[in-house]
Amino acid sequence: MSAVREKKRTSRLGRLGLLLAAAGIALGPLVALAQTQIYDAKTGKWVDYDKKKARQLYARNKQLPEAFQRQVVPFRTAEAPGTIIIDGNQHFLYLVQPGGKAIRYGIGVGREGFGWAGMVRVGRKAENPTWTPPPEMVARDPNAAKWAAGMPGGRPDNPLGPRAMYLFVGDSDTIYRIHGTIEPWTIGLDVSSGCIRLNNEDVIDLYDRVDVGAKVIVLMQGAALYKGV
């Protein structure tokens, strides 16, 4: 039994959004994201995994719940080894390996209205990346506005952490990244503005294994669609 699941709360409008997505029609924020739950082995019950619960567990244990820790798992796919497959609803990133296996990493994904799905590629990689908030974030977030020209990499408060993989469609930067985080307790939650975040140890591990040009498949229920490679 998986230690993570979604608690469905899709409305009639959400079901319409799913049908449109299946037809290949780009969506806005029509679908309410499912609530993540984790299995509590002590009580034998599923419990909601929200921001408060996640922070409490991380403060108590100094690590993520086991389900979101890096591990090798069975994984059946026709995609080649080296492909990244992201299950945004379950909050997992899979790096396909030979022999029907994958390395599974826990991730944080876009909050409601910021989710997306499609096929992209790793266009470039950077160590200690500069964080430059997009204009939309600068406009809505005073804390981001002071870094409109870019926050240098290597700072302990840099939101991208120690590594970043920049996601492209063709030769165009999507503005989305796979990167580290200064908030490791947010892994397993819908928290970002669309980027995929890993804890810093995991993003370094993934960075060292992934090549520029690697195919990235992002799956997320009811999200806006990118049509890429």
Descriptive account of the structure:
This protein is an alpha/beta fold and 229 residues long. The chain is 18% helix and 33% strand. It contains 5 helices and 15 strands. It has helices at 12-22, 51-61, 135-140, 142-145, 200-209, and strands at residues 4-7, 35-40, 45-48, 71-74, 84-87, 92-97, 101-106, 109-110, 116-127, 163-169, 172-179, 190-192, 196-197, 215-219, 224-226. Strands 4, 5, 6, 7, 9, 10, 11, 13, 14 and 15 form a 10-stranded mixed beta sheet that branches. A 3-stranded antiparallel beta sheet has the order 1-2-3, with no helix packed on it. A two-stranded parallel sheet has the order 8-12. A hairpin with a 3-residue loop joins strand 6 (92-97) and strand 7 (101-106).
